[in-house]
Amino acid sequence: MKRYIWFLIIIGILFALSAPILFTQKWSNIDFMETGQIGDTIGGTTAPIIGLLSVLLLFYTLWEQIEFNKKQKEISIDEQFKSTFFNLLQTQRDILERVSGKFTKLGLFVYEEYPQHNNDIKIMKGNKGWATVKNKPIDVESRGLEFFKLAKEQLQLIFYSLDSKEYYKGYNIEEAYEAEMDLEGKIIRGCNIPSEIEKEQDILIRNTRKPFRISYINDKYKISQKLHSEYQSMSIEKKIALGYAFFFNNYENIGYYFRHLYRILKFIKMSEDEKLEIWKGKASEAEKENIHNQFKQYAQFIQAQMSIDELLLLFYNSFLFDKAKELIIYYDLLENLTIQNLIKNDHNCIDDLKLKDKKNLFLNLLKNTQ
User: Fold this and answer.
1) 109-113, 174-178, 287-291, 365-369: the lowest-pLDDT one
2) N or C, which terminus of the chain has less Cβ within 10 Å?
3) Which pTM value belongs to this model?
4) Number of domains in the chain
5) From CA 351, how far away is CA 236, in angstroms rounded?
6) How far is CA 174 from CA 121, 129, 268, in A?
7) Which conformational region is residue 354 in: left (phi greater than 0), alpha (psi within -120 to 50 degrees), or beta?
8) DSSP state at residue 31
9) DSSP 8-state class, residue 344
10) What is the model's pLDDT at position 352?
């Protein structure tokens, strides 16, 4: 547009300057000298041209002012955006430090509960004390990044229970202890155990402990037999949503972390739309892409500050909240999360999230180093 206006102005100026010469020359069929009024001829010819040039110059001045105002508005929007964004980003990290929860799980032996123990619990058989087990966990909260690390373990346990064909409930520490003692009488210890016997023992140990581990998880997260049964026939997306819902229901304070993260992404998207609005629908596809990439880099600032465990929970959280998922996809916020980071590989069921395969990343890295 700017180049076109300048072209018209230059043509007009050249024509206005050359008109007196052109119109006072004697041509084969036309002789302006015979008019007797050379000045009138020149004036009558050049006046409209000069008037047109004045209009073009005025239009150009107005157009330049509009462009200047547009750029000033863009600069103002950018400055306000950056100030607000980095304040929100700092608040997000502050919220991370305040996210907390208490986690417990069974240890190697299914009568032991972790993280730590500080009380002795007597296991009774009949009216007699049969065994004493250190089993009451210390009331300790995990915070910040430690919370997300342990949250991943809890999700693994939940999906372990849900994916099991069998359903168990009513964890009993006395029965768990008795089962472990029975195992001790059946297991052969040593270094020179034949591989076949070792495999059989591993299967026996796993099958003996499995009901206690599953019943412990089902009791803790209130997983009913009805929901467990319905889970088996669900689509993979609904399975993921249900599994994460059990976790989210027990640790709702993580919701504040994700709500604020959604607020930041929504703020970025609104700012991007506001900048596009300045163009009033006249932006080219290249300009639209440039504006999108400009704001996408701010979303990448968020991702750069997030650990893999945070990204993992963000992935599972998105199955409960579609609006958040849309923005996660739009800004490719899970770019650094790989398929292998998930609880199960088949949880990679949404192509738009574009999770990478760690094996391919490794192969590409090798190619780049050659």
Assistant:
1) 365-369
2) C
3) 0.76
4) 3
5) 13
6) 10, 11, 55
7) left
8) B
9) S
10) 93
